[in-house]
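Re: Re: ligand-bound prediction request (bumping)

Still looking for help on this. To restate: I need the protein modeled with zinc ion bound, output as structure tokens. Inputs repeated here so nobody has to scroll up.
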Amino acid sequence: MNDAKGLNKVLAVLGAFALLGLSGCGQEAVIETDSSIQATTEQTSGSVNEEGAEEHLDYEDQDEWVFESGEMQSPINIETGAAEAMATDGSLTLDYAEEIIDVIDNGHSIEIEDGGQAIIAGRSFELAQFHLHSPSEHTVDGESFPIELHFVHKAQDGRLAVIAVFFKEGTENAAFQAILDDVEANEESTVASGLSLNVAELLPANKSYYHYLGSLTTPPLTENVEWYVLANPVEVSAEQIAAFNEYYDGNNREVQPLGERSVLKYEE
Ligand SMILES: [Zn+2]
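Reply:
Sorry for the wait, this slipped through. Here it is.
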């Protein structure tokens, strides 16, 4: 029973997003229905004809129900001028462990397995790992950065949240150097190095960010991932960017259409 309920909820949410993507007749269908989510689901899953009348769901043929997704993908280009001020307190409190579990070259990125906690807008997430893309996956007003770091978090209920940090060329970054050195020193080793890292050096002091709902940027491209793209980049040296590019240069997914989604701005 609970599973069925859960599925209905998922379908309802996906249906709601699908409706946002429809023009004219789809939106009229929303207005005509009552406000319950279940009714919205039925409107969405049943096909809507030209006159706005819809066929009802066929509960005898549930395998044929259409499962919509793909409208909420990441990364995106962030248009700063179009970002809406966040109406609620979205403050970030990050407390990441300095004892690194392992640094791994996983074949598509350098990934650092780490623990710790993030409080995002009052909700608690556990850090699972962070990894790097070059060049950046997100762009800001069309501008790309040399590197983008993704802190990947999971909440107790399984919700995913990624905090993204841009790296730009500037002064050398000691924490980033420690990661590069560890990868080089332990390339052939399967044993964890026991690296100790001042993770705070990989974050800007001011944690203003852009927020939107997107997806993982590698398969299975799972949607409903919360993105927090920090507005202020951290500096790394040109030599460090070149050193990272020896491992990865071009492990960035192309930007995806924003569609009907909003991008919010939180100013710290
Ligand atoms: Zn990533």
